[in-house]
């Protein structure tokens, strides 16, 4: 980024108008304008201002490569020797165990295939019950192994009707809310890949994932049991509805049928450092169904679990080397769109976004994935 700023051409000097009369005073000689050098400090200020949602503020610094104090080096060394091997083995053991459960429960069954999607999430009976309950418990077990020993959850209010009417009504039991009306989708801010583990442990919903995930060892079958909606942009078949069409159908199905798998969407489309909320995409709001907003925060003292401007491998290693990790969850009331919001998905998305920002003390930002890629490219120069 420093090179890019230095290479900018200087602004040409504006021509001075010629005077017809002789000046009364002799003008002082104009000294040449000195070339302004941009310090590393000013560059950091520009980065923080332009790319604030993706800037790290923990001890490990930008890209996790900052200069560490001696105390942090000692703690990191202890984590590498003692914590990392135990947590890797523990996580892989739980993953393999759940894979075996999914393999047994889907034995002799053909996956549900529709619009170039395939899943086992629509399987009923004891098979679905075992997949769902064991998936929730084992996801929580993985979080525990990774150092998330306690999860602080806060539930606010009852239900919200559209246009940011966030006044709480009389408290009601969760099963009563389910009987009245189910949300079509769960919408959440996106901070880390840990978000997925938490939502699996809480409600075991479906996610939107790349098509290649379905072919991964172990994880591929688990994603089909979750009922993931796979992104396959290269498909050109005539009956291909596109991800938006499949998501809309799944949202309506989840809203109308209590036995249908829930669907979880991250409308920001990318991760942040956890302090900001990016503009929402409208995919979760096109179906005109109510949504359940969930806000995730990751308090930290040393290493931030946010996956923003750091490589995946480095992030996993540093996360597993931290002795204790924390999650704070705020569950907002089910948001029911007004008639105006149903006719305008952008308005619906923006109102839910502002509600989440207000309740979660998050800062609204106007930048998105494109700016994040620019920031990453500048960091890697």
Descriptive account of the structure:
Pathway: Lipid metabolism. The chain crosses the membrane at residues 74-101. Residues 184-299 form the Phospholipid/glycerol acyltransferase domain. One of its GO terms (biological process) is phospholipid biosynthetic process. This protein has twelve helices and 13 strands. By secondary structure, it is an alpha/beta fold. The chain has one domain (59-156, 182-380). Helix 7 (219-226) links the parallel strand 6 (208-210) and strand 7. Helix 3 (70-105) runs antiparallel to helix 4 (125-145) and helix 3 crosses helix 7 (219-226). The longest helix is centred in the first third of the chain and has 36 residues, at 70-105. It is globular, with a radius of gyration of 26 Å. The N and C termini lie close together (7 Å).
Q: What keyword list fits this structure?
A:
381 residues, alpha/beta, 5-stranded mixed beta sheet, two-stranded antiparallel ribbon, 12 helices, 13 strands, 40% helix, disordered N terminus, Lysophospholipid acyltransferase LPEAT1 isoform X4, transmembrane helix, acyltransferase, O-acyltransferase activity
**Nearest-angstrom radius of gyration?**
26 Å
Report the end-to-end length measured between terminal Cα atoms. Answer: 7 Å
Q: In percent terms, what proportion of residues is strand?
A: 5-15%
- Count of helical stretches: 12
Strand ordering within the main sheet: 3-11-10-5-8
* Number of domain units: 1
Mean pLDDT: 85
Give the SSE string.
Answer: HHHEEHEEHEHEHEHEEEHEEHHEH
Give a count of the beta strands, DSSP E runs of length 2 or more.
13
* Oligomeric category: single chain
Main sheet characteristics: 5 strands, mixed
Percent helix among the residues?
A: 40-55%
Low-pLDDT ranges: 1-8, 16-28, 33-38, 165-179, 236-240
Given helix and strand content, the structural type is: alpha/beta
């Amino acid at each position: 980024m420093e090179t890019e700023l230095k290479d900018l051409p200087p602004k040409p000097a504006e021509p001075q108008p010629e005077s017809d009369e002789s000046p009364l005073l002799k003008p002082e000689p104009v000294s040449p304008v000195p070339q302004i050098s941009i310090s590393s400090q000013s560059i950091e200020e520009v980065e923080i201002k332009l790319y604030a949602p993706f800037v790290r503020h923990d001890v490990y610094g930008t890209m996790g490569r900052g200069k560490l104090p001696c105390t942090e080096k000692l703690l990191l060394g202890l984590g590498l020797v003692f914590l990392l091997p135990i947590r890797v083995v523990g996580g892989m053991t739980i993953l393999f165990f759940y894979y075996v459960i999914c393999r047994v429960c889907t034995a002799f069954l053909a996956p549900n295939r529709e619009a170039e999607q395939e899943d086992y999430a629509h399987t009923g009976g004891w098979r679905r019950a075992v997949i769902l309950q064991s998936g929730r418990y084992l996801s929580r077990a993985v979080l525990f192994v990774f150092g998330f020993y306690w999860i602080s959850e806060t539930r606010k209010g009852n239900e919200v009707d559209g246009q940011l009417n966030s006044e709480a009504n009389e408290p009601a039991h969760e099963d009563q809310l389910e009987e009245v009306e189910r949300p079509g989708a769960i919408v959440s801010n996106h901070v880390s890949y840990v978000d997925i583990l938490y939502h699996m442990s809480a409600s075991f919903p479906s996610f939107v994932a790349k098509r290649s995930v379905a072919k991964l060892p172990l994880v591929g079958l688990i994603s089909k049991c979750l009922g993931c909606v796979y992104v396959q942009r290269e498909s050109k078949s005539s009956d291909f509805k596109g991800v938006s069409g499949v998501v809309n159908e799944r949202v309506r199905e989840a809203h109308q049928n209590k036995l249908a798998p829930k669907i979880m969407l991250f409308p920001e489309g990318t991760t942040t450092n956890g302090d900001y909320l990016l503009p929402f995409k409208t995919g979760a709001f096109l179906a005109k169904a109510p949504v359940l907003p969930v806000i995730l925060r990751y308090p930290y003292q040393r290493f931030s679990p946010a996956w923003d401007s750091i490589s995946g491998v480095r992030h996993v290693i540093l996360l597993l080397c931290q002795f204790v990790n924390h999650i704070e969850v705020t569950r907002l009331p089910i948001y029911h769109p007004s008639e105006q919001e149903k006719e305008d998905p952008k308005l619906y998305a923006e109102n839910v976004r502002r509600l989440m920002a207000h309740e979660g003390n998050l800062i609204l930002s106007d930048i998105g994935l494109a700016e994040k890629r620019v920031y990453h490219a500048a960091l890697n120069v």
